[in-house]
Amino acid sequence: MMKYIPAISLGLSLVLGIAAYLLLRAGPAESSPAGVASVQVAQVQEPETVTVLVLKDVIEAGMPVTPDLVRTRDWPAEHLPEGALTHTTDLYGPTGTPFFAQMNMIAGEVLVTEKLAEVPPRRMLSKEIPDGFRAVSIAVTTETGVAGFVLPGDRVDITAFVPQPGRTGPDAYRSRPLLEGALVLGIDQIMGNEVEGAMPSSLVTLALKPEDAQKVTAASRESRLGLALIGQKELDNEEEETPEEVRPAPRPVIYRAPPPPARPDTARVTVVHGTRAQTVTTPVEEEDKAEDGEPMEIGAGS
After folding, report:
1. Is the pLDDT of residue 42 over 80?
2. Is the pLDDT at 203 greater than 70, yes or no?
3. Which residue from 107, 246, 130 is spatially nearest to 183, judged by alpha carbons?
4. Contact 59, 108 (CB under 8 A)
5. CATH of the domain at 56
6. Distance CA 154, CA 135 (A)
7. What is the domain extent for residue 77?
């Protein structure tokens, strides 16, 4: 009997192994055997993404958006902005030209159709006028407009040339300075400081204070207005200096002397009769009044 024990143990182990294999193939049982724990592994799903176009750098309104200004980036589909562009071909309009930025945009911003247009945005002069100023246009010629070298963004001095009737030559006009350092907003219908070179024009638009605008408008009715272009170096030097507060000059103190005292209209007169003296009051003529305003003592004897 002892010699059959190893064979019985081997057969029992084989049976148990086959049973365990069959249990694993059949899947997890409704109830695990005692001492055996079932382990389930949870699977994490990656969020769905969409490839979009984002800006590489800051761009300003009016710039054409070309492929070299953008790059692609994976963006979560559930947070995708409405109208987001997904391919560089979306940057071109029906005519084959790139769209223009309708507003300023920052680096990393997703491009959307709402911020692009086939034509650049229209610039409004009212947005270029500094606070508290007014836009005033004056007529100029080649001579009075510095041969067209006055451009938007420059500073100019304004001089009025008043005609003198009956005079000719150098005396035909009298110059009268009006304003200094006026800001040029535009020439004809051109705004912006991207213009270079000479641009001969017939109208120059300036930014002026309301009171200065009235002064220039009134002067343009009776005289010719000329512009004098201020150099950029002079403007840079003025910006570096700290401007002192402009205060009105103190009014001179005028000392008014008190009026002289009124001179008396009468005088005391002492009349001596021998050893007896008598004082009487008598009217005084204008030329006989005392200089110091005191009553006069007049002595008389008999």
Report:
1. no
2. yes
3. 130
4. no
5. 3.90.1210.10
6. 15
7. 49-117
